[in-house]
Amino acid sequence: MKKRVLCILVILLVASPLVLFAGGAQEESGMIKVGIVNLPPEESGYRQANVEAMNSVFSKENGYDAKQTNTGDNTEQIAAAKGYIRDGVDYLLISAANASGWDDTLKSAKDAGIKVILFDRLIDTDKANFQAALVSDMAYEGDMATQWVLSLGLDKINLILIRGQMGSAAEIGRSAAVLKAAGAGKLKIVADGTGGDSWSLEEARKVVEAAIAAGKDFNVIYAQNDGMAQGAVQALEAAGISHGKSGKVKVIGFDFNRFALRNVQAGYWDADMQCNPRQAAEISKWIKSGSLPSGIQYQKELLLTTDTITDELIDQWGINADPGKGVITR
Amino acid sequence: MNMQKVMTRMSHLVLPISVLLLLIIINLIKGADYFSITVVKGALYGNIPNILFGASELVILTIGMTLVTAASQGQDISIGVSATITSAIFVLFVINAAEVTLVTIIAGFLISCVAGLLIGAFNGILVSIFKVQPMVATLILFTGGRSIAFMIDGKLSPILANDISNQIGTVIPGVPIQTPIILTVVFIIITAWVLKTTNLRLYAQSVGINPSAARLNGINPKKIIFLTFLIMGVCTAVAGFIAVNKAGRHDSVNLLKLIMMDAILAVAIGGNSLSGGKFSITGSIIGAYTIEMLNRTLLRLEVEPEAIKAFKAVFIIILMVVSSPVVRDFTRKIMDRVRTLGLIDGVLKRHAPETAAVSSPGSIKRKEE
To answer: How many CB atoms within 10 Å of residue B144?
Structure first.
């Protein structure tokens, strides 16, 4: 008897959300229906900015009836996408947690006449399975940053490379140009380290401390995100090595955290390379214009130096908290 | 006699110290200037200060982990996340203060300690009263805790750009040692004092060895396990405080990420059993510094970034095999044999029965201990 009651309870528990959500799917006429499958904002400041842009662009005021699922679990993401396909959305926007396992879902969306747009992250699938993708080109970011290093006019470039998570798309893309330049003899990599899987500030600091302890002579730090650049600069500070605009060591970070941009503005660092999380506006422009591009599209991204940085740009493109003008984050 | 006493007391430190010595030798082979210390901007600078500086959070967390392991026979895997939450509360308090003074910082720190105690109480209740396995109980916070910290941060990573924070994370002008090192030493001294003046060590060990026997002897295992988790909570608050002041901003995603792995490893290198019972905090602390030194040794040897994890794994496997009971028993047997041979040799050479007479009561006494 007890068992049966328990069974019924469990069934009710499982079924109740289905019933609740079935009631929630209402038609709204005249609106463009969009289903957004994204990663959770607490993943990073970058993702927070990304989700925020999605929320503000795909709003009722802008003529969208948008539903959003934010999860880091690929299975849940696929389930959500299938739900949106059943709901009959017009556009399905996906930033996948995992690049594989999406083929069936994408095909069924295509069969249902739903346009799939990937944003921020690509999926390993046939190009025919999605309409368009808008992503950051990590290799482009690496190119821009390396061009900047080469254009500094240093007699001899001795560079410390601090990579992100080994094998991640960002690490591969951002390393490629530097490694190529080193291979061509345009610069010398005196230390090659990584911040590990968490792009760790502490690990980056250790890489630079090890280089200093080994008596290496270096004048450029190329850190593949802002946190690691910060760790590297902490190591320089502790060792009494000058850096920044009027210093010996030139420092570049990535990602456009506002604290990093303020450091660049103050001349404490030298440059920062953007990785733009705000694809929403561009995608909305595509949808509204009625002519969707096809295939992979890359975003244009900025590299700001102590000379080109302005308050407006920091406000518009930065991510995470702004420490305020003139405040240096050490 | 005295020497023998010291030797038996130190015997459990043989493993961590020998591992440390091994790393020092490797580093000295790479370059003889390993211990050189210079003065930069009024503070000591060099490999050793760097290690002490870098390991500070790990050392503090390892102390808590040792106690939790000893009493609860399991590990707390939420420590990095707990430290992230407590430091988020600290940062929230400081950035909302009208003016950042030393009082603000201390008040913020005390509040974060209270948060640490609450987290410790949460984990402790699950483990001691509800008898959930420590690793499973702490898995809850490990999974969800960073989201909590993210919410406390207001979805942004707030900046801690004030002079006092900066001095806590680096050096106070006029003091030649980096502040995190000083804080760590103070924390170690407080821990040593607590263990010296209270029965915590005895109680934690007896609970860890056999909870039922401890209960029959009037020690309440629930209370002791709960208490060790409370201490762990304070440890996470202190570690979070140091970490966030070092970083200068609160990154809820990456702060002290995966540090529990290193803390558990430090406990193991320290010669402690991960299934509870007798423990040595000294060993764990040496273990923590050993791990920091190992990380830096790999960088000093310029291991390729692609291979660095594999190298670390190989080192750790070697350490663990060397420290395993099998190898330890084997070396002890060999050492005993060598000692006996030496003794016989001595007796034969000197023809002096006094030597044997003197040494035998010594060995009996040692057995009694």
So the answer is: 13
Counting one residue from chain A and one from chain B, the pairs whose CB atoms sit within 8 A come to 108
Instruction: Tell me, yes or no, if B313 comes closer than 8 A to chain A by beta carbon.
Output: no
Q: Where are the domains of chain B?
A: 11-323, 328-368
Does the domain formed by B11-323 have CATH 3.30.160?
Answer: no
**Cβ pair B246, B256 in contact under 8 A:** no
Distances (CA, A) of B260 to B9, B81, B252, B265: 28, 9, 16, 8
pLDDT tens per residue across span B229-283: 999 999 999 999 999 999 999 999 899 998 999 999 999 888 888 999 999 999 9
3-state secondary structure of A53: helix
- The DSSP letter of residue A301 is -
Residue A30: CB atoms within 10 A of its CB come to 6
Q: Which residues are CB-neighbours of A320 under 8 A, at least 6 positions away?
A: A45, A48, A49, A257, A258, A259, B156, B157
Q: Give CA–CA dist B280/B63, Å, rounded.
A: 9
Average pLDDT, rounded, for chain B:
89
Rounded to 5 degrees, φ, ψ at A135 are: -135, 165
Question: pLDDT grade, residue B363 (50/70/90)?
Answer: very low
Candidates B40, B51, B157, B245: best to mutate against A (most CBs of A within 10 A) is B157
- Comparing CB atoms, the residue among A194, A259, A320 nearest residue B305 is A194
Residue A254: CB atoms within 10 A of its CB come to: 30
Supply B66's token pair: 């040792």
In this complex, do A238 and B146 lie within 8 Å of one another by their Cβ atoms?
no
Kindly list the residues from chain B whose CB atom is less than 8 angstroms away from the CB atom of residue A44.
253
Query: Contact B158/B95 with Cβ under 8 angstroms?
Result: yes
Domain assignments of chain A as residue spans, ordered by start: 29-130, 138-276+304-317
Please state whether B302 falls in left (phi above 0), alpha (psi between -120 and 50) or beta.
left
Q: Which of A324, A184, A161 is nearest to A252 (CA)?
A: A161
Do residue B248 and residue A329 have CB atoms under 8 angstroms apart?
A: yes
CATH superfamily, with its number, for domain A29-130: Response regulator (3.40.50.2300)
Give the dihedral of Cα atoms B95, B100, B103, B109; nearest 10 deg.
30
Mean pLDDT computed over every residue of chain A: 90
Q: Which residues contact A178 (CB under 8 A, 6 or more apart)?
A: A142, A145, A146, A149, A159, A161, A187, A189, A222
Return the residue of A nearest to B160 by Cα.
A329
A200 vs B contacts (CB less than 8 Å) = 254, 257
Name the fold adopted by A138-276+304-317: Rossmann fold (3.40.50)
How many Cβ atoms sit within 10 Å of the Cβ of residue B99?
7
Task: Name the residue in chain B with its Cα closest to that of A210.
Answer: B300
The three-state secondary structure class of A295 is strand
B249/A259 Cβ within 8 A: yes
Chain B environment of A191 (Cβ under 8 Å): 302
Q: Do B155 and A41 touch (CB under 8 A)?
A: yes
Distance of CA B31 to the CA centre of its chain: 28
CA torsion sign for B86, B90, B95, B97 is positive
Taking a C-beta distance cutoff of 8 angstroms, is the pair A74, A103 a contact? no
Averaged pLDDT for residues B154-159:
88
* Least CB–CB distance from A209: residue in B50, B154, B159: B50
Q: Tell me, what's the ipTM?
A: 0.86
